[in-house]
Amino acid sequence: MSQLDFSTTLGNAWFPAPIFTASGCASSGKELAQFFDLRDMGAIVTKSIMTKPRAGRATPRMAETPSGMLNSIGLQGPGIDAFLANDLAWLVEQKARIIVSIAGETAEEFASLARRLRGVAGISALEVNISCPNVENRGMVFACHLESAQTVIEGVRRTIGGDLPIIAKLSPDVTDIVSIARGVIDAGADGLALINTVLGMVINPNTMRPHLGGRTGGLSGPAVRPIAVRAIYQVHEALPKVPILGMGGVSSGADAFELILAGASGVSVGTASFGNPTAIMKIQNELRQILTDKGFSSLREAVGFAHRPESSVR
Amino acid sequence: MVGLAMAGINRSAAQLLATIVGNKKVGQYHQILISVGDLVAQCKPGNFVAISVGGPNSKMVLRRAFAISRTTTSTQYGGAIELIVAPHGNGSSWLCGLVEGEQIDITLPLGTAFGIPTTNVNALLVGGGYGSAPLFGLAEVLKERGCRVDMLLGASTGSKIYAPLEGKRSVNSLRIFTEDGSMGETGRITSPIAQLVSELQIDVIYSCGPMAMLKAISEILDGGDVVHQCAVEEAMACGIGICMTCVLPVKDEAGKINNLRSCIDGPVMDGAAIEWDLVGKTLVL
Q1: Which CATH fold would you assign to the domain B122-278?
Q2: Fold of A8-57+75-202+220-307
Q3: Where are the domains of chain B?
Q4: Chain B neighbours among A 74-93 (CB < 8 Å)?
Q5: CATH placement of domain B14-110
Q6: What integer pLDDT is reported at residue B2 of this predicted model?
Q7: A58, B281: Cβ pair inside 8 Å?
Q8: What's the rounded Cα separation, in Å, for the pair A227 and A259?
Q9: What ipTM score was computed for the predicted complex, to two decimals?
Q10: B278 in contact with A at a CB cutoff of 8 Å?
Q11: Distance between B139 CA and the closest CA of chain A, angstroms
Q12: Which residue of B has its CA nearest to A274?
């Protein structure tokens, strides 16, 4: 059996394996480190960090839904100072590969976060989360507006310089995701993270009011996977050279394979880790087996395979 | 599998496929016994487990959290933990429907445990509904330490009281309160607490049950010297600290209030440190 090349790249960042955490679904890695070695996956994508400590939204913050869940966390986090001193320092010490995710209330906040991260050793890439749905002001969902999204990415690109890959995390809650994708790439992003959660709501039949403290929440889990596959497929079709970190309801190797066929170069796992702390290792092992069984000699060969004409059967 | 990076969070925890070795219906509840081998030695009163529910094709994507009520060791099945489960929702009903010999995917032990005093103090244990489950195991540990252990159990109605016969042996006194008077004394479980605290010279209250009950106990004890160790109940998605859904506002030593995760900074917390009036509110840092 020939050896499978399981490595992948996002911009100029190289990763030995293609499965990642999803931002906001692994905190900063310490919790999952109890269950597997963080170095065994592609990289940890940290919970989106903001400038100041943030308490997040009111509880209840969670509702399980059929094959999914709604969350309404609202970017709770320690702020960039504590993040750099504690969380990032710890991850670097573990020799984990790290993608730092940032979030801001304004384009200036994103740029100033990028400034704080510029030159920090041990970071493979920067995820710019312009699509968190759990914010008071829907105007803060930059990824829903082409010009706002571009302004944020331009500011980060200018600040961070040319080396560190920038991955823009986009929302599926738009009419035309391809135009947003093209816009942020034009503005200087090297890659795309697709998809953030889908805005949803659950009403409690007992209280007869919205269940979540924040009223709306982000839907994740297997229920959203077809939306992710569609978004990745559309964007890869329009921008075949742009690397995509795919995510949305992946809980098995077959699910990850589906996103890769659609055009993802790497796959993030989020909600599945809530249900299974070792989901990432399980998914990665299953994916490796599937790629081998299908006769691929490298992961790269499978990226976007679904776009090939019917005649190119394996 | 354990302690790879020594990050210090849930450092005794492991994920395993464990076998159900008992499932007995007790009133409205199920006593479920799960074989977990040597891991039983790491399970302390107050710790909880997270169980994957519904089988491989389940549409329920999140684990269910249950307090460990008791641990045992037998020659037949080795170390085992006992859970008290009410078949309320789809996940707990699925679990209650399992029979001996079936396997479950379980992560344990999780979260903080009840602090056990090093001297023989007077302890009052207060359990609401099946929140009483972890208190019987705790009572045994406290009795072994030479503590005086008194217990209050309460519920809306008698059928919701969980009070196994064998549990009664590990306490000096047990009083039951139901709101409808169908079992024990009529009234709320919190009504006799102030009097008992002074009569029995209580040093510490251990509580487990609905948030409203925990809050009421904290208010009764406010300003006094009695320590209140409460096991909180907040909806959790993961149980291991990564989802940030189960947070509670807790004041630190400097007086600063932060949203802490009840799964890893709890479930056992200092009742006096929880800002009960801010639970469910938006916290501004």
Answers
A1: Rossmann fold (3.40.50)
A2: TIM Barrel (3.20.20)
A3: 14-110, 122-278
A4: 76, 90
A5: 2.40.30.10
A6: 34
A7: yes
A8: 11
A9: 0.94
A10: no
A11: 30
A12: B238
